[in-house]
């Protein structure tokens, strides 16, 4: 990793970029880092909005996301997907069940296991919240030509690699 530039000008530049990333201050035309930061912040804001609208916490929202996108699962499978203990998963599922978002039933082939399912009205409400975002992203992608898509894909693949490197090769990302 190259050494960081500790000059006063470099500190001022980093501070200015950080201020732009976290606010609505106009960004320079070439400040990709600020735009990536803003996308990350908007994603976090959107997830908080969905969680608040559904009246769930972060782990509950993540569990709902898995149930809606991947289908029914056992509590152990969900715990593994979320990277939490089965005891913590039990608490998450209690909160989701008490809020009317999920139901648990005996596994059809193994009566010792439970299967967790998202309740239809919660699945529908979550989809209603997320569909406009998905449709908007689809429109953005559809508006790009092949060369633009290839450039963005290369950039995003490299960005994913940076995150994977930061997480460490010994601990691959969950899911």
TrEMBL record:
Entry GO MF terms: DNA binding; DNA-binding transcription factor activity
Key words, A-Z: DNA-binding
Gene3D superfamilies, alphabetized: Winged helix-like DNA-binding domain superfamily/Winged helix DNA-binding domain (1.10.10.10)
Keyword field contains rRNA processing: no
InterPro entries per UniProt: HTH_MarR-typ, MarR/SlyA-like, WH-like_DNA-bd_sf, WH_DNA-bd_sf
Sequence segments annotated as region (Disordered): 1-30
Gene Ontology biological process terms, A to Z: response to stress
Pfam families attached to this UniProt entry: MarR (PF01047)
SUPFAM superfamilies: Winged helix' DNA-binding domain
Signal peptide limits: none
Positions of the HTH marR-type domain: 29-161
Protein name per its UniProtKB record: DNA-binding MarR family transcriptional regulator
Organism: Microbacterium proteolyticum
């Amino acid at each position: 990793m190259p050494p960081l530039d500790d000059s006063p000008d470099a500190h001022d530049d980093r501070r200015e970029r950080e201020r732009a990333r976290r606010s609505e201050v106009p960004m320079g035309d070439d400040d990709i880092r600020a735009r990536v930061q803003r996308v990350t912040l908007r994603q976090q804001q959107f997830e908080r909005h969905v969680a608040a609208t559904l009246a769930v916490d972060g782990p509950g929202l993540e569990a709902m996301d898995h149930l809606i996108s991947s289908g029914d699962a056992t509590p152990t499978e969900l715990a593994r997907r979320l990277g939490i203990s089965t005891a913590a998963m039990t608490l998450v599922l209690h909160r989701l069940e008490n809020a009317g978002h999920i139901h648990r039933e005996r596994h059809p082939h193994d009566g010792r296991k439970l299967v967790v399912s998202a309740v239809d009205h919660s699945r529908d409400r979550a989809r209603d919240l997320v569909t406009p975002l998905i449709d908007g992203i689809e429109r953005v992608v559809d508006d790009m030509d092949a060369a633009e898509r290839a450039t963005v894909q290369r950039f995003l693949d490299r960005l994913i690699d940076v995150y994977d490197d930061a997480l460490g090769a010994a601990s691959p990302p969950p899911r």
